Amino acid sequence: GAVVSQHPSRVICKSGTSVKIECRSLDFQATTMFWYRQFPKQSLMLMATSNEGSKATYEQGVEKDKFLINHASLTLSTLTVTSAHPEDSSFYICSAREGAGGETQYFGPGTRLLVL
Amino acid sequence: TQLLEQSPQFLSIQEGENLTVYCNSSSVFSSLQWYRQEPGEGPVLLVTVVTGGEVKKLKRLTFQFGDARKDSSLHITAAQPGDTGLYLCAGARSNDYKLSFGAGTTVTVRA
How far is CA A103 from CA A8, B70, B87, B88, B93, in A? Predict the structure, then answer.
């Protein structure tokens, strides 16, 4: 149980294009999903918290107009990197928290984004 | 400044040896989670500890949560090459469920 999927797993795009990454909880309902980015040899940095049906909460220093988050249902959240630039190249990982007060987060397999 | 200080940053040992990874903070957490991450993949949950003083065992892995719920340790007995990976601790504070991650410990077990 508690499986989280991400799609796509890898994406290469040209500078200036937008990229959408999907995060799905496959066998549970996720009241909250989180988006992280991870640079090589570094730990995970939280970008934003996404609650179903409401606006995402962004961490300090993360541009909300750059990283659009939509949490349309209890099993799906999307992150859109708008007008991507080479410095946006990173490993993006989502996680999902089960409802009913559970604190454990289950992570997706990550999406490797390379912007040329 | 990271909320959770994880040490050591790197650990390279021979197969069969034991190792311990530490996670310390001045903050109190409602729960603490340990993950293992392999290159190019997402973190995989190993354990969640929620009670101060709690000890959990998972085969050769032993996890402890400090009495004050500010620190934790992961001990691996008789390490195997399959234990190689990045180990991450992450603490949750009950008011917002956000996880604060340690910097990670890269463990390499040589055959």
Answer: 26, 16, 19, 16, 9
Distances (CA, A) of A59 to A37, A46, A47, B63, B91: 12, 7, 5, 30, 17
| Chain A contact present for B28, CB below 8 A | no
User: Can you list the pairs that A59-65 forms with residues at least 24 positions away whose Cβ atoms lie under 8 Å?
Assistant: none
Q: Is the peptide bond before B8 cis (omega within 30 degrees of 0)?
A: yes
Pairwise CA distance, residues B36 & B39, whole Å: 10
Instruction: Report chain A residues whose CB lies below 8 A from the CB of B50.
Output: 103
Q: For Cα atoms B6, B93, A103, give the angle at the middle one, nearest 5 degrees.
A: 95
Q: What is the pLDDT along chain A (116 residues), one digit of tens a residue?
A: 689 999 999 999 999 999 999 999 998 888 899 999 999 888 999 999 998 888 899 999 999 999 999 988 889 999 999 999 999 999 999 999 876 656 788 999 999 999 99
Q: Are A33 and A96 in contact (CB under 8 A)?
A: yes
Is residue B66 less than 8 Å (CB to CB) from chain A? no
Q: Do B42 and A107 touch (CB under 8 A)?
A: yes
Q: Which residues pair with A19 in a beta bridge?
A: A81
